[in-house]
Amino acid sequence: MEKWRGKVAVVTGASSGIGAAIALDFVKHGLIVINLDRNVDEEKVKEVDKVAVQHGGKFLARQTDISDMHSLKASFKWIEEKFSVINVHVNAAGVAHNISVLDEESEEKINSTIDINFKGTVHCAREAIRLIRKSEDYGMLINIGSMFAHVIPFPIVGNVYAATKFGVRAFTEIVRQELIVSGDEKIRVSSISPGTIKTNVRVTAGWKDTEEFYR
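Predicted structure:
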């Protein structure tokens, strides 16, 4: 991690859950971390920034709705104006709802899940790659997927959330291949597929623990 000290990392959804844990680890290694999130708690930002300063890093947050293209592009424009480039980008923002895809009342939540988990990830990645390329240095794009990108338990638990994570997994591979074709060897692309973790996403979705899926 020493080679990333002083570098700029963007983490979506870093106000809680996996994103928050990643951001905290980054600042402890001296990175400048920018949290893009719909819900920004200024007090938490100050707390994490204190930790960051102790390790030679910095923590900032900008309220951003990655499901809204205007909000997303405005935030990346702000990042470009402030830092010129980024070096690491982590797509950790995500939502899940305890719904049935065939329920007539589910349309709004289905659209929200697709817009944040898949479309938001796609367009954040596009903006991130642009600014990583601008650095003319080594960089990383990491997409947080899910075990539901590999298997869907029965009875079905993942609903449209699982579909978005399958999409993220495929999209990650597409980006990797496009970078190879373009001859860009400096940007590494990865998708991480965690199992069940007790975050706000799992709790609000009302999902059971992993072992109960396979009883």
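Summary: The longest helix spans residues 107-135.
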